[in-house]
What does this fold into?
Amino acid sequence: MLLGILVPIYLALAIAGAYLLAKRAIRPITEITKAAETIRAGDLSQRITGIATQDEIQELADTFNTMLHRLQASFTRERQFTADASHELRTPVAVISACAEELQKDLPQGEAVEPVAAIQRESARMHKILSQLLLLTRGYEGRYHLEREVFPLREVVASVMEELAETAAASRIRLFNQVPDEVSLYADQSLTTQLLINLIGNSIRYGRERGKVVVRASLTQTQCTFTVSDDGIGIQEDQLPHIFERFYRADPARDRSGSGLGLSIVQWIVSLHNGQITVHSTYGQGTLVTVALPTQPSA
It folds into this structure.
């Protein structure tokens, strides 16, 4: 009878002890796994701490921390170089553009006019690329301060469509603002405007002639979801995972006048607002971009 009572107790204690020992042994591996997850999320500032096992696991953790430190330093240098180069190149590009503009005024109509116009066009494009690179770099470094406010989305969409109306008219593309009046956002209005300029501008650039671009929106208690859709050339399925990469071109036949940074900036703006963005596209039929952003301050 005594054995019948003690054996289950000893067995339970042995199982509990084994569980605690196994959990303690696995904890360092769990910490390493969490650190790996932060890298996938883009955060290189995290380090593995609290591991003092004096064995191969601690050695692995120290090696992992050293690798993280080197990666962070490398990315920091790259971003600093991008910021410095963008800042320094803006002045010479502006000078080239101004000189080309003055030269174009003085030249008689002839063969030299088009090359000068090309210089002016490319200078303007380069200035836009440098400005966007600088914006992205400051954003990634956390130097951009959000100015959140509540504002009606329909009015912002209307102003963006008015700004892009001439570009759309050149391709006979119709713009439709179907955002209800009651839909509002709690966000940085300047960045939201930039986001919409990039998305609607892309839809116009890659839309088909006599096509359409439609902006719709819906509202819940916590977020506003809006879509920008077109019936243009679309994006192939295998290229969709890469469209947010800087300077990525989905198709060599697509319009080359853009900077290649528009969707990278869109993704950064959405991430900065703790929102979500998804892209659905059918090649040859069109693209639908869905963005979900908060509508009000968090409690």
Remarks:
- The first strand starts at residue 148 and ends at 152.
- The CA atoms of residues 226 and 243 lie 19 Å apart.
- Residues 56-106 form the longest helix (51 residues).
